[in-house]
């Protein structure tokens, strides 16, 4: 199962949202069919309260930006922050029913900003380089290692009164501080964990190198998680060299697998196939905001619009976090194109996981209609499962509906790739109105996702005859939807755009799809993946009942290129580029 945003933002009425209730549903599903692993997509814990009721309150209350920027992070403040992060982890990881799930299901995690503090990495560069941010970056990394990776932390972390800790040493970590090591034992690793892909150099605001992940989830599924926080700035998600390391490792593993790997699950901190809000970015960063900022500074006008750290518009750091933000467009395109090439070279379907946005959706990249590519053979077809938040509150209906209206078909600047969201939410969960009747693509309700592998060969029935999703034989061209007496429509005609289902696994996506239960391994696409997004019905229900919405993702079979099968590609106009 996949989850993200497992905690509450500062000021949220946790009782109104019944605490982490959806973990009850996770445990029910786990009892029906045990999860192999739970994948945390970032924000497994919310440490934001460090600035309102923790040791950073004094610093946050400083009104003068210059004084705040030069505030020291000495060993005393480091020790108090150390205590805060430790106690907050102990408290949250002891909270039921999350604690029960943690004790029963193996986990894989990457971190995001709330594992450190809200917006870490996405504020202005000069502010992010202040001592306090660098200090809590180190302390939070320590407890991220301990609680989320169960591995030894760095020996010491950044403080302004220990020069050895203020820059990374030859090992890519903060130098040792005898005061922090007094009466303390820290295990010294002889080698990095084999599942890690460690960055070559420390992050700009954390004296540690990024920890990206690679591992196998069974014979046919590989997993890669990109650490999208350690190296993040407002203008980059990861260093170019880190992407090189990741793709080198993936190629090495795929070559060694000799064709056994059919799927790559790629975990990113935020969605990558998602509606744009460029117009809102432009407004919030335009001169029109300056008079409002002045009124806020002098009279407190529009206080909720500006953050407490650098005085910038609060929503802007969230928008800057997204791969679809204007600062990240080139980096995003390069990553997508490299994934497409990798997918084609090894005939491996790439499925992307993303959280952070506090709603559910299903984005897809796919070949532009002019390419006439069958999606089952299309290496550009990459779904992006967007699942967030499992615990935090969702955005207002109006935000989800706005995003749905922005669900246009975007054209990647490579001239070959289109992108849009799938119409997946065919009905409101449990009849509870979560969004407008016309919104089928974004679901503003707490949720998590289940991914189940479909066997690559039909399951024999008692007579020994192959059965594929209830249809005898292996030649069933139109597998059943799971509804008695009804069949799925045939796959799309070539040339249709992404506002229509792209293949048989997307036909009938939603509550009536065979995958909606979250536990079945039967489906219309042998060798593919079943995906169920489990959406909360009623936030006042402490049992966390959910409604499932399903679809199936095909495996990839790349056919040899021929001139006939690859006609000239569509070249987008300037207005189309995204």
From TrEMBL:
Residues 483-497 have a biased composition (Basic and acidic residues). Pfam families: PhoD_2 (PF19050). One of its GO terms (cellular component) is membrane. Residues 456-578 are annotated as: Disordered. Residues 3-153, 217-284, 299-452 form the PhoD-like phosphatase domain. InterPro entries: PhoD-like_MPP, PhoD-like_sf, PhoD_2-like. Residues 464-474 have a biased composition (Low complexity). Signal peptide: none annotated. This is PhoD-like phosphatase domain-containing protein. It comes from Exophiala mesophila. The lineage of its organism: Eukaryota, Fungi, Dikarya, Ascomycota, Pezizomycotina.
């Amino acid at each position: 199962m996949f989850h993200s945003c497992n905690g509450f933002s500062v000021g949220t009425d946790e009782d109104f949202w019944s605490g982490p209730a959806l973990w009850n549903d996770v445990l029910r599903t786990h009892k029906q069919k045990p999860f192999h692993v739970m994948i945390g997509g970032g924000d497994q814990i919310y440490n934001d309260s460090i600035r309102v009721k923790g040791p950073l309150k004094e610093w946050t209350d400083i009104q003068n930006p210059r004084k705040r920027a030069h505030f020291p992070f000495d060993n005393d403040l480091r020790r108090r922050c150390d205590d805060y992060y430790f106690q907050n982890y102990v408290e949250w990881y002891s909270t039921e029913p999350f604690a029960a799930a943690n004790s029963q299901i193996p986990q894989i995690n990457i971190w995001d900003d709330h594992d450190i503090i809200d917006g870490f990495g996405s504020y202005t560069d000069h502010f992010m380089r202040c001592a306090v941010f660098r200090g809590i970056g180190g302390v939070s990394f320590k407890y991220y290692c301990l609680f989320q990776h169960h591995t030894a932390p760095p020996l010491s972390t950044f403080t302004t009164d220990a020069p050895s800790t203020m820059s990374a040493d030859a090992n890519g970590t903060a130098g040792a501080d005898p005061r922090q090591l007094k009466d303390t034992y820290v295990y010294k690793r002889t080698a990095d964990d084999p599942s890690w892909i460690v960055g070559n150099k420390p992050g700009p605001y954390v004296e540690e190198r990024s920890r990206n992940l690679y591992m196998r989830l069974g014979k046919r599924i590989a997993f890669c998680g990109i650490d999208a926080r350690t190296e993040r700035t407002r203008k980059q998600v990861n260093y170019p060299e880190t992407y090189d390391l990741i793709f080198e490792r993936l190629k090495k593993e795929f070559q060694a697998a000799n064709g056994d790997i059919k799927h790559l699950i790629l975990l990113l901190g935020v969605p990558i196939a998602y509606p744009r809000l460029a117009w809102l970015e432009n407004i919030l960063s335009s001169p029109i905001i300056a008079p409002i900022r002045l009124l806020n500074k002098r009279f407190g006008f529009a206080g909720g619009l500006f953050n407490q750290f650098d005085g910038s518009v609060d929503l802007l750091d969230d928008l800057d976090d997204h791969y679809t933000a204007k600062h990240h467009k080139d980096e995003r395109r390069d990553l997508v194109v490299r994934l497409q090439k990798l997918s084609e070279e090894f005939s491996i379907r790439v499925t992307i996981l993303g959280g952070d946005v506090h709603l559910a959706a299903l984005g897809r990249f796919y070949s532009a209609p002019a390419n006439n590519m069958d999606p089952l053979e299309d290496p550009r077809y990459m779904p992006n499962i967007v699942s967030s938040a499992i615990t935090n509150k969702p955005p207002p209906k109006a935000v989800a509906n706005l995003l749905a209206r922005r669900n246009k078909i975007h054209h990647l600047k490579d001239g070959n790739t289109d992108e849009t969201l799938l119409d997946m939410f065919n009905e409101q969960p449990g009849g509870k109105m979560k969004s407008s009747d016309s919104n089928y693509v974004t679901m503003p309700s707490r949720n998590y996702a289940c991914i189940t592998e479909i066997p690559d060969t039909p399951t024999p029935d008692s007579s020994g005859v192959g059965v594929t999703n209830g249809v005898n034989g292996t030649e069933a061209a139109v597998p059943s939807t799971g509804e008695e007496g009804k069949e799925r429509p045939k796959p799309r005609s070539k040339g249709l755009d992404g506002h229509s289902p792209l293949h048989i696994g997307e036909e009938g996506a939603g509550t009536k799809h065979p995958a909606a239960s979250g536990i079945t391994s039967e489906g219309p696409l042998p060798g593919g993946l079943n995906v169920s997004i489990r959406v909360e019905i009623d936030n006042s229900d402490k049992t966390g009942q959910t409604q499932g919405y399903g679809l199936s993702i095909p495996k990839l079979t790349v056919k040899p290129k021929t001139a006939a099968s690859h006609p000239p590609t569509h070249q987008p106009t300037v207005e189309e580029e995204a």
